[in-house]
Every structure is written in structure tokens, then in C-alpha cells.
Amino acid sequence: MNTIKVKRVYEGISAEDGCRILVDRLWPRGMNKEKAAIDKWAKNISPSTELRKTFSHNPETMDEFTARYIEELNSNEDSTEFTDFVKEKLAQRNVTLLYSAKNETMNHAIVLMNWLNERL
Questions:
Q1: Does pTM top 0.85 for this prediction?
Q2: What is the distance between the alpha carbons of residues 6 and 20, in angstroms, rounded to a whole number?
Q3: Helix axes 108-119, 79-90, angle to 10 degrees
Q4: Taking the CB of the first residue and of the last residue of the chain, which one, N or C, has fewer CB atoms within 10 A?
Q5: What angle, 0 to 180 degrees and rounded to 10, lies between the N-to-C axes of helices 62-75 and 108-119?
Q6: Phi and psi dihedrals of 46, rounded to 5?
């Protein structure tokens, strides 16, 4: 069974990655297109600039960030198309959501993965 995973874009490419989707609004620093090896850049599905700056990867605001990001996802006109894309890719292989944040346990890609898993 294929799954959705999250991974820092700076980690090495793996055959298990499957479809690699960058879910950051900004292109990762120091990363060129060849190194990133992404199949899709879903910047419109990432948190708004305002929300990203408010959160600033502060663990104390993670719950609020999660709730606000889910609200954004639920009202984002691109969410349905993105969900359909992920569902289509999952039928063929794994899907890996790529992010550039340093915190591997508290970031928007994890929130997005959980949100997607609830819908699929």
C-alpha cells in the first residue's frame, strides 16, 4: 500500500519517495532544481505568508498554527485539485511532501499530511 510521507528537501533522494511534491511557498535556499528532483511544486497549498511568519516554528504556537492552517486548507480553492492529484499519484506510488524547515517534528508538511490522510 502506498503512503504519504514527509521529508526535508535537503535529505537525499530515495526510490521510496515516489512522487516528490515541494509544499513550501518559497524555493528552498541553496537548492537547485536538479538536486530537489521535485515532480510538483505546490506553493499554493502551503501556509499563507502571514501565517508562516506568525508561527515562526515556535513550539508554543503549534496548536494555533495547526488550527489556522487547517482553516486555510479547508477554504483554499486549490485544495480539491491538490487532494485529487495526491490521490491519483498514491494509486501508483508513494507521495513525499517536501519541506525546508529545520524542525522535523513540528512543521506545516506534517499538518498537511494529516489533513490529506483524513480526506483520502
A1: yes
A2: 10
A3: 80
A4: N
A5: 50
A6: -75, 165
